[in-house]
Structures are given as structure tokens and as C-alpha cells.
Design a protein that fits this description.
312 residues; 12 helices; 2 strands; globular
């Protein structure tokens, strides 16, 4: 049970990193990125190829994954950020599916459906199975904490306030001289790089990746983490990630009571449970469990009623 809990917390930490990156793009800037798994998978395969084919250490693979994620984010955003929200969503969804098809068909490089084996771990040798799993959890937790502190700090800076103003009405910051396209580009690239970094952590944790690891259901869970927690609120994203992963993994325990269903049907039922929870959240808490705190403009100062200069 302890090893299972460690595994669940590790996965939750990886999802938390992706959700924080998505919250930067969508929660703060208003960019609809349905291509989460595309950048996630790109980071995973890039890191795996760097370590297994070019024999780079894990840190070098992680850096390569982040760099490739940033470049891919820049290319996608340069081609699509001038589109409206719905069209951007379609472009990013198409990007994710294109990346998955490349992983599936270029088996000379990625292993295709057979999978890509990764021997390089984030941990030192000789720790044993339980010790290695615990160390991976610590590494993922430290990475998630670092990303959370970075996003929380960024959200409170003038830069974060500009992103929020772009989300609400990009005409206002534009009239104040802000380059809207550059800000959107930066937010999309930073978020994409972080998603790719999460993919690197995942690849070296599971050690065998296939294209099926980077499909739409993964993106759904990441989006749910942001929506359930509260878009624009980094603390809410953390809470939402933990809640969604706990609900998704906890639904596994329904299987012993559902003997009349096969494994595929039970898997589908788990997403029905997740979807039902999302509907209830949107119905009763449309802004999420921890809504973003909107800053109110300072009240106008009272008029100067001093008698200086006045006559009676």
C-alpha cells in the first residue's frame, strides 16, 4: 500500500506541474491550449532519446526536453496566436495528435507502438526499488514546489497583471503600449517548456513510454485540475491536481464491486465518475474550489475638505 501511495503522489506531482503550466497559459493569459499532451510527450521522447541514444545524463535529457518544448511552443504560437480562442484550441489539438502519430509511426526512432525503453533514472544506483521510488517522489515534489513558487511569484508581479489584463480585454493593455502578441508568445512558450519538462520526469519514472501514454484523456485530467481548482489561482491548481488524481485513482477500487463489467468498461466508468464530478463542480462552484481573488481598484480618495484657501 505504501508503494502504491508513493506512485500516486509521484503521478500527482507530474500532473501538478503540467496543470501549473496550463494555468499560466489559460488561467492567467486566456490561451486555450488543448495540445498539452503534445508538449508532454515531446519532452518525454526527447529526454529518452538524449539519454538512451546519445548517452546523456538525466539532467542533460531534462534540459533538452525543456529546450525542445520551448521551441515547439514558439513555433505553434507564432503560427496560431493571432487566431481567436476557438481556432487556437483547434490548432493545438491538431498539434498534439500530429505529435502522437509521429511517435507511433517513426518506430526507427521512438519504438512506435512497441514502446521506448529508458534505463536512465533520476536517482543514484544502489537505493533499491522502494528507495528509488521514494527519491523520485522527492525529486518530483521539489520540481513541483519550484514551479509553484515561480508561477505564484510571476502571477503577483506587474508582468502577471499584464497577462490578466490581456485575458480580460486585450484592447486595454494594447492602448497602454503593451505588445500583446509578445506577452502571449512568452506565456505560451514558458508553459510549453514546463510541460515538456514534466514529460521528461514522467519518462524516466516509468522507464517505458508508448504513444498511448500521451492521448487526450491525459489532457482532460490536466484541464480538470485547473478548472476544479480554480483557473488563475495557483494554490487552487495544486488542490485541483490532488483532488482529480485522488478521484481518478480512487475509482480503481470500484472494480471489485463491478464484477459484471470488464476491464475496458471499468476504465470508461472511471472517466464517467470524473466527468460527473466536473459537472457538479461547474454547476455549484463555477469558479472552482479556490477561485481567483480579483483585485479591486482602490477607492477614490475623499475630496480635500480642509479650510485652507476657502472662505466663509
Amino acid at each position: 500500500m505504501e508503494s502504491y501511495l508513493i506512485a500516486i503522489l509521484t503521478v500527482a506531482g507530474i500532473y501538478m506541474i503540467m496543470a501549473l503550466a496550463l494555468n499560466l497559459q489559460f488561467g492567467l493569459t486566456g490561451l486555450i491550449n488543448f495540445g498539452v499532451v503534445g508538449f508532454y510527450g515531446l519532452g518525454a521522447y526527447t529526454s529518452g532519446i538524449a539519454t538512451e541514444i546519445f548517452h546523456a545524463p538525466f539532467i542533460a535529457g531534462l534540459i533538452c526536453a525543456i529546450a525542445v518544448g520551448a521551441v515547439a511552443g514558439a513555433v505553434v504560437s507564432l503560427l496560431s496566436l493571432r487566431l481567436s480562442g476557438d481556432f487556437l484550441a483547434i490548432v493545438t489539438l491538431g498539434f498534439a495528435e500530429t505529435i502522437r502519430l509521429v511517435f507511433n509511426n517513426e518506430d526507427w526512432l521512438t519504438g512506435g507502438p512497441r514502446g521506448f525503453l529508458i534505463a536512465t533514472r533520476q536517482v543514484f544506483d544502489g537505493l533499491g526499488r522502494s528507495g528509488a521510488a521514494l527519491m523520485v517522489l522527492v525529486i518530483v515534489a521539489v520540481a513541483a514546489l519550484a514551479i509553484f513558487l515561480l508561477m505564484q511569484r510571476l502571477a503577483k508581479t506587474p508582468y502577471g497583471r499584464v497577462l490578466r489584463s490581456i485575458r480580460e480585454d486585450d484592447l486595454v493593455p494594447s492602448t497602454l503600449g503593451k505588445n500583446i502578441f509578445v506577452y502571449r508568445l512568452q506565456a505560451f512558450v514558458i508553459g510549453s517548456a514546463i510541460m515538456a519538462g514534466a514529460g521528461s520526469l514522467y519518462a524516466h519514472y516509468v522507464q517505458t513510454i508508448t504513444p498511448d501514454n500521451f492521448t487526450t484523456p491525459v489532457a482532460i485530467l490536466v484541464w480538470m485540475s485547473v478548472i476544479v481548482g480554480g483557473a488563475g489561482n495557483m494554490v487552487g491548481t495544486v488542490v485541483g491536481s490532488l483532488a482529480v488524481v485522488a478521484l481518478y485513482e480512487g475509482s480503481r477500487f470500484l472494480a471489485p464491486w463491478l464484477t459484471f463489467l470488464d476491464a475496458e468498461q471499468v476504465s470508461a466508468l472511471r472517466f464517467i465518475v470524473i466527468g460527473s464530478a466536473l459537472i457538479l463542480i461547474i454547476r455549484f462552484r463555477p469558479e472552482g474550489l479556490l477561485p481567483e481573488k480579483h483585485q479591486r481598484p482602490a477607492e477614490a480618495a475623499p475630496p480635500n475638505l480642509s479650510s485652507k484657501g476657502s472662505s466663509l
